[in-house]
Fold this protein.
Amino acid sequence: MTELEKLRRAKIPCPETGITVKHTLCDICTPENHCGVDAYVLDGKVIKVEGTKEHPHNHGLLCTKGAANREYIYRADRLKTPMRRVGRRGEGRFEPITWEEAYDEITARLTKIKESDGPDAVAVFSGYTKWYRGLLKRFAYSFGTINYGTESSVCFDATMMAWLATTGSFAVPDMAHAATYIGWGYGPHYSSHLAVGEMQEFKARGGKLLIVDPKITPAVKMADLHLQLKPGTDGALALGIARVIFENGWQDQDYLDRFTVGQEAYRRECDKFNLGTVEQITGVPRDKVVAAAEMIAKGGPACMHQSASPITQHRNGYQNYRAILALLAVTGNYDRPGGNLPIVHSYNYQAAGFQTREREYTGATRLQSIHTPIGAGRFPAWDLFQDEFQAVELSQQILEEKPYPIKALLGFGMNLLMFPDTAKLCRALEKLDFFLDVDLFSTPCTRYADIVLPACTSFERGEMRVYPSGHAFFTKPVIDPLYDSRSDTDIITDLAKRLAPQDELLCRGYEAAVDYMFQDLSVSVDSLKASEFPVLVPEAAPPQVGLTLANGFPTPSGKFELESSLLAQKGAPAVPSYPEELYHPQGNRKYILSTGVRLPNTLHSRLHNVPVLRSLRPEPMADISMEDAARLGLSRGDSVRLTTDGGSLCVKVNPTSAVLEGTIHLFHGYEEANANALIPADWLDPCTGFPAYKSIGCDMEPCAG
Ligand SMILES: Nc1nc2c(c(=O)[nH]1)N[C@H]1C(S)=C(S)[C@@H](COP(=O)(O)OP(=O)(O)OC[C@H]3O[C@@H](n4cnc5c(=O)[nH]c(N)nc54)[C@H](O)[C@@H]3O)O[C@H]1N2
Ligand SMILES: Nc1nc2c(c(=O)[nH]1)N[C@H]1C(S)=C(S)[C@@H](COP(=O)(O)OP(=O)(O)OC[C@H]3O[C@@H](n4cnc5c(=O)[nH]c(N)nc54)[C@H](O)[C@@H]3O)O[C@H]1N2
Ligand SMILES: [Mo]
C-alpha cells in the first residue's frame, strides 16, 4: 500500500489526501440537541462524521443516531427528483418531472381550490422537522389559510400548555444550585444524551436523584430512589406525594400563601389520594411514596426535568403533568435558586437567553377568517394556548367536511405513521383533491401524494440554530444537495413567489427572514456565516432568578395557579386531578400497552431504514416482562398478536426485566408493525387533544410468526 493509500484509508484530512473537514450539525433528533458535527469530505462526498470538539453544546460528543449521519444522508431511498403520481393513491407509482413542472402544477391546483373553496380549504402541515417552520407558517398565512399545523400537536406542546396554565411560563431546572433532582419520566441516555453528563456532575457533587418511570432504564441505575409506577398513573402519584407532604407539615407554607392561588381546592384533590389508594392505582409501595415526599420536600432545593412527552401522552396526561408541577409550589421551588427557573423560547423552539422577532415575522400576515382552525373548540387547553390547528383532527375534518371542507394538504416532512388510527388518515388522504408532500425519503406518506418534492438534509443546506448557552450558529452546506433535491426553505420561497407574491419579505427567502428576526441583535446571517463555529450573541443573558416572584407571574391572578382560572373559564378541570374511572387505560383488557418510549437506535420513522442502526434491533419487537413471557410460554423472537380497541397486529417479543408485569412496550414508526394502528382516533386527552400513545388497554396472545 502506498503512503497516500494509507493516509486515505485512515481518512486523514490533509492536502495529500484531499480530505477536508467541514462543520455542520446533526438535525436527526430534537432541537434541544442539534449537536455540532465534523464532516470529513472527499470529492464532494461525506466519508466520515465526528462530533465537533469546538462546539459549545456537544463538545465533540455524538450519540448513536448522530454517529450514523453518513448512512442517514445516503439512505438508499432518498428521493431524487420531483415526481407526479401516476398510480392510485398509496400505490407508489410516480413519474419524474422537472421543478418547473411541479411548481406550475402545484400553483394551478392550489389556486383553483382557493377560488372554489376558499383559502382555509388548504391545510399546511409540518412533521417533526422544525428548522423551516418560521417560513412555512408565514407562507400559510400569506397564502391566506388559517390552517397551519405541525407535529407539535402531539409532542412537547402539551407540557408547555401545562406550564402556561399554571405559572404562565415554561421553566428549566437550575441543576447547578439544586440538591435534589426530580427525574419524572426522565430517560436522557436515549432521548437527550447531553443531559447525561450534567447528571453525572450533579451526582458527583452529592445531588440526589429521584426517578419516576415505569421502566428500568440507565437513568434508574443512577437514582437514589426509583418509583416504578404503572404508565399514565402519574397524577395519582403526584397528588399522593403532596398529601404526604401536607400531612407531615413539610410544605413551604409561606410560598404557598404568598405566591399561589387555589390552595384549598388543590388540597381537597390531594386528600383523595391516601397511601392505600396511591398504591392500588400506581403500583408504587407506600414506603417509597413517603420516601419520595421526604426527598422532594426536605432534600434541599429541588428542581424537575421538564419532560418532553411521556407524561402528557395519556388520556389524563395534561392533568397528570399539572399535578407534578404543583409539587414545585408546595415545596417553594419555582423561581428560586436550585428550583425551576422561567425562560422564554426565543427562536425555533429554543431558549437562547436573547429575544428575537420570530413571532412578529410568523404572525404578521395572518388574516381574520370566518373559520376557526381544524380541531378548534374541542380541546380547551389547546384553544387557550395554541394558534396552530390540532393535527389529530385533520383526518376527521377531511372525511366529514365539518365545519367546512379541507380539500388540499401541503405536507413538509409529513409521516402518516405518526397519527393515531393510521387507516383513517389514509382514507382522508385518498379523499383529498390535492396533496403535496416534501420529504427526504420515499415514505408510506409520499405514496399518497399527487406531487412529491425531494428536500435535502442539514449537510446540504445552511441553517440557523441557537443554543441555551446564548450561542447562534449559521451553518454552511458541507456538500451539494444530492440528486435534484433542494432545501425546504428554497422550496417554500419558490412557492411563495407564485402563491403569495404580495409578501415581499417572505419572497426574499430564508436568510432575509432570519435577518429580520435577528435585527435587534448585534449578529446577522453574514456575521455568523463568517464563523466556522457557533458565536456567542452579546445580548444573551442567563435567566434572572426571583423576578417572577417579585413582579408577579404572567397568569391572570399574577400567581402560581394551582387552580387555573383560564381552564375554569373553558370548563376544563381547573385543579390537577386524577379521576381514575375516566382515564383507566385498560378497560376489560389485560395489559397496558405503551408505544414509543425512546430507544437509542431509533428516531420515530427516520432511522428504521439506516442499516447500522437497524442492526441494533433488526426487527420491531414488543418488550414484555419476564413474568408475562413465562406465563404465556414465550421466548425472545416468538410472535404475539396485540389487540386493542383500535386494531390488532402481530409482532415479535423481547422478554426483559426492564418492564413491569402487565405492561407491553412497542416502538412506533415501523411500517411492518405500526404501533399507531393500535391507537384509536379518539383515544385522546380531552384537554389537549394529545393521543394517549403511552397507555391503552391491550390483549396479547401467542400467534404464528
Ligand atoms: N432516541 C430517540 N431520542 C429521541 C426521540 C426518538 O424518537 N428517539 N424523539 C425525540 C422527541 S420528538 C421527543 S418528544 C423526546 C421525548 O423524550 P423523553 O420525554 O425523554 O421521552 P422518552 O425517552 O420516551 O421517555 C422518558 C422516560 O419516561 C418514561 N415513561 C414512559 N411512560 C411514562 C409514564 O407514563 N410515566 C412516567 N413517569 N414515565 C414514563 C420512559 O420509560 C422513559 O424512560 O425524545 C426526543 N429524542
Ligand atoms: N405511537 C407513538 N406515536 C408517536 C410518538 C410515540 O411516542 N408513540 N411520538 C410522537 C412524537 S413526540 C413526535 S415528535 C412525532 C414525530 O413525528 P414525525 O413527524 O412522525 O417524525 P419523523 O418520523 O422523525 O419525521 C417525519 C418525516 O420528516 C422527514 N424529514 C426529515 N428531515 C426532513 C427535512 O429536513 N425536510 C423535510 N421536508 N422532511 C424531513 C422524514 O423523512 C419523515 O418522513 O411522533 C409522534 N408519534
Ligand atoms: Mo416529540
User: Anything to note?
Assistant: The first helix runs from residue 3 to 9. The CA atoms of residues 462 and 476 lie 4 Å apart.
